[in-house]
Amino acid sequence: MAMISPSRRLRRTPFSDGVEAAGVKGYTVYNHMLLPTVFRSVEEDYRHLKDAVQVWDVSCERQVEVRGPDAARLIQMLTPRDLSKMQDGQCFYVPMVDETGGMLNDPVAVKLNEDRFWISIADSDLIMWVKGLAYGFRLDVLVDEPDVSPLAIQGPKADDLAAAVFGDAVRDIRFFRYKRLEFQGRSLVVARSGYSKQGGFEIYVEGSDIGMPLWNALMEAGKSMDVHAGCPNGIERVEGGLLSYGNDMTRENTPHEAGLGRFCSTESALGCVGRDALLRVAKEGPVQQVRAIEILGTVPPCDRAWPLMDGDRQVGQVTSAANSPDFNTGVAIGMVRMTHWDTGTELDVMTPDGPRAATVYDTFWI
Ligand code: THG
């Protein structure tokens, strides 16, 4: 593919200087911001992510801050997950839906306190919907995008690297919890979370000015751990079944179709604007759903949906695919119709390089 032309619309991040110095070889655009996709090669990055530790510039996971007396009420309007028992210090993975139950985003919600939340968004302009609801319902909240840029530490040595910079307190942070820890006299939210199955942390870097100092401190402290700049890995995330909004699900899908029913408690999510619509569809159950798909032979880059066929009948589509070195097969995420979603169902997938044999599974490679 040709180069991507830089401009002010395509936002740099507080870590872009470090990312470039580390030799980034490819970017995608996510929330109108640069997101690295490859440093050495996707395969080398994959091996290193699973064996060592990486620092990821995931600034593109922008925050929608909701602040004020109606903050909790507004956040609950956005999601069918019941947030009434969410505590300060917790992060929740939350499907967010419109009034039809269609997925608008699948962010991580961070509760700073009862009247202040961050919504750490996937790739859609969620802030406009949030602002629209706040205005339309005359809520007593401010909705904006703060100067907060997540930096992830991911991989088996993530605890050691994070501890070297933030102290041993990081080791006690539980999954999807955060602590406020100091860096250069600033208090930062450090959560045990991240877009890989290798474990690690996300630092919500508040203030662009400390972006490069923190990046450099991590690279320095991690020398003995073979730390490298990295990024969400297209192979590892498909193996792990981590969904990508805009790829694996869109506004056309409900959370149940996306396989996110386990993050919904629609009955008790009073105030969710999609509640009635979702209660209706949940009664019937979805007629298509996300599945793991094994594909025989090598697969090309997946930049469009590939039809899943039973003979000459289309019964679904592959939405993300990669060649897995560890499992020595094509791994994929697909949306499959109910008639064909049982484990072991054999189908054909129409890749741009020709048809491939595919098998449906109900668990990912993890
Ligand atoms: N971290 C933060 N913000 C984000 C992402 C992130 N915003 C964009 C994008 N990623 C949002 N999507 C996801 C998708 C999956 C997960 C988190 C955000 C995730 N899922 C775990 C899983 O499926 O195994 C488990 C979640 C749980 O059990 O609660 O981590 O990565 N800050």
From TrEMBL:
Enzyme Commission identifier(s): 2.1.1.269
Ranges of residues in domain GCVT N-terminal: 20-266
InterPro entries per UniProt: GcvT/YgfZ/DmdA, GcvT/YgfZ_C, GcvT_C, GCVT_N, TrmE/GcvT-like
Top-rank lineage group of the source organism: Bacteria
Domain Aminomethyltransferase C-terminal: 303-363
Binding residue positions for substrate: 202
Gene Ontology biological process terms in this record: methylation
SUPFAM superfamilies: Aminomethyltransferase beta-barrel domain, Folate-binding domain
Keyword Transferase: yes
Keyword terms, alphabetized: Methyltransferase, Transferase
GO molecular function: methyltransferase activity
Protein known as: Dimethylsulfonioproprionate demethylase DmdA
Gene this chain is encoded by: dmdA
